Fold:
Amino acid sequence: MQPARAPRIIVKPWDESDWPLAWRWIGEYYFRVADDEAPKTQSEFVSKQMGRPATSFGVYRDGSLGGLVSFDILSPTLCEGHCLFKKGRSAADSFWGRSTTVPAIVQALQWMWVLGIERIICPVFESNRLMAKLLEQLGAVRDAEPPAGAKSRTVRQGRPVNVLYYSLYPDS
Structure:
């Protein structure tokens, strides 16, 4: 019996026409990653994504698109990172899991370092321990204070929640 081969993970520039697909991926867990100010419909989501200064990458596994790593450009050397992956209906269909997420995010980070980014901040709801652990695995450090202008609390589903910030650097 042949050993299972590792999936081939590739990131490449995001196709703007795929924003509705990203909305479908995030649909079942949106309440865990969005606050009450976030778009509520696919139309609002797509409109907001199309209008922001960002560098975004599609995540392909064995040729299938199932993830997004995106960076909101805040200055020539600073950006805010976000990612989302298709949960899928089965383990084989899901893009969740370190075997896909880690190589995809690492590839996207490498693009950003080449572009001259020196720091990537990543906001995470305090309750999202899986994302916090993933960032720590990637070498991120938790910031003691929110970055200037960032909020440490927001409202999600009508309740106040804490937002933690992690930073990634080229030498992470």
In short: The first helix runs from residue 19 to 26. The helical segments are 19-26, 30-33, 42-50, 98-114, 129-137.
